[in-house]
Amino acid sequence: MLDEPITYWLPFALSHSSAHLTLTQLLTHQSGMIDNPNMLTYAPSANLAHYIGFHDSPDILLASYLNEDGALYHAVSEDTPIYSRQGVTLARYAFTQAT
User: Which one of 23, 34, 40, 80 is least enclosed by Cβ atoms within 10 Å?
Assistant: First the structure.
């Protein structure tokens, strides 16, 4: 399960560059996902999803972030090992969809 592409468990499509991501890559910060700066700057007391306008569900937020047509899309760079808050969020979401 950890080394299978997460697209198997997600209810939305990912961009071509994100389609190969695995839980192992996401959980070890080796996915190359780079947090979109617009996702990181928000009022500390606000709920992030509410603040940026995605009130209903994490799949809408993640789809917008990881689909090339999404408003928050930020490309994945395979050679960039870096901590990604959205990578961890995506791993958690994929895991909950799989179980």
Answer: 40
